[in-house]
């Protein structure tokens, strides 16, 4: 079972989302305090994305 972030990463890996789209979605998720997704996790994923590690 995958969550929201897992689905977004899978879409990126399948080239159905661009790097900039994924980064934008992660930033939006990070800004929402009402979601049960850690802003720290989002930042780590953004860093990995920028480093080419996803």
What are the defining features of this structure?
single chain; 54 residues; mainly alpha; 3 helices; globular
What would you say this structure looks like, in words?
It is a single chain. The chain is globular and about 30 Å long. The protein has one domain (4-51). The mean pLDDT is 92. Helix 1 packs antiparallel against helix 2 and helix 2 packs antiparallel against helix 3 (39-51). It is mostly helical and 54 residues long. It starts with a helix and ends with a helix. Helices cover 67% and strands 0% of the residues.
Tally of DSSP β-strands: 0
Shape: globular
Task: Provide the residue-averaged pLDDT.
Answer: 92
Give the radius of gyration.
Answer: 10 Å
Tally of domains = 1
What share of residues are in beta strands?
A: under 5%
Distance between the termini: 19 Å
* Helix share, percent: 55-70%
Order of helices and strands: HHH
Spans of at least 5 consecutive residues whose pLDDT stays below 50 are none
